[in-house]
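Case study.
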Amino acid sequence: MKTAEEILAAINSALPEAVVELVHNPSVSAQHSLRLDPAHALAVAGFLRDDAELALDFCSNATGVDWPGKEITEKVKVTRVVDGAETVVEENIKHQEPGYLEAVYHLYSMKHAHREIAGPVVLRMRTVNRTDQVELPSLTPVWRSAEFQEREIFDLYGIVFTGHPDLRRILMWDGFVDHPMRRDYVDPDDYEYEPTPHDEVLKRVEHHKASAGVTA
Amino acid sequence: MAVEPDLKIELGKQGVFVTTISEIYNWGRRSSVWPMQFGLACCAIEMIATTMARYDLARFGAEVFRPSPRQADLMIISGTITKKMAPQVVRLYNQMAEPKYVIAMGACAISGGPFKQGYNVLKGIDRYIPVDVHIPGCPPRPEALIHAFMALQAKIDGQPLTGSERPRHLDAEAQGLFPIPHQGAHDLEPPVNRLVWPLPAPDGGHE
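After joint prediction, the assembly is written out as follows.
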């Protein structure tokens, strides 16, 4: 089985117009992944499946990741004039890093039946943001096994897969709104009495009591 | 009116069989409780094992699992009830003919179990339909299901046929249909049937 770097080189030579980025995994598993640009993802996926040497013909898993926007504080050294003398002052600069949604695919080759357990080839795609530009191309036309899993990602994370043959909710009911696996999803307040509330449940108890007007 | 046990034994020795209407009626009812062939999750595997030769639920007159709610007397809620499935469970219960009983089997069916704090699992089927026997366990062993079944039989046996304690099917006024919850934007609406189960208030007392 080829490494992620070798696969990246193969993609770059076959499809030079596609922008593919190697995402390093610094952990012990060193399971690096390839980040595809949504515009060329379908072509790259088709290449990975049809290339005789790679023959990644099996998509075993597709899932979503929610990366909420976060505020990043950076310390920057700025030269300022203080009391007539130039001094170097450290300033905290805050800026908002926009969040995005990610779809992750795990690929194997049935044809080569990889003996060495090197883990799957991991593909990633990212949306522009988490609110209105959440489209990604569906890889179901390439790997049929992605169909239900993309529906699940759509249901729980809210990524809209263009080109999917049947994009409906799969786990939650049709009238459901929001996407419950997103980090900022708020559960309905269906608190019920717990004898020993703690942690998350304790927070819910307090919220429930506050909204119900109970002082305790 | 019950027959005195000593007198009954004495008469039995003389070849005279004495009983009461309620005793023979309840004996008939409890000895042929047909469960509905209906499983929800992993507890259903234990329920199936209970019906097989090793545990043999047939000994208690409950071997006939009916595939139709119209022919079933007992609903064994065997497993996790998701909020997506809950309306169908209540509808199936409504479709069963009286007299009907419910055993809530396992942690999920009685309270939501390990998924209680999740967004998609109902926190116990007793929010919507009356439950006769609760079995804790994850999953309960077949012996626990048999114990629950025997507890249900004892409950049927003890039911008087008249008076305020009489079973629902002998009470023309009794509520037999239970409202089916509607799937709302985030949760089931209403989240609980208060006629069946008064939800404990946040301070721990009942409303």
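Observations recorded in class. The helical segments of chain A are 4-14, 41-50, 146-157, 199-212. The radius of gyration of chain A is 23 Å. We will return to this complex in the next lecture.
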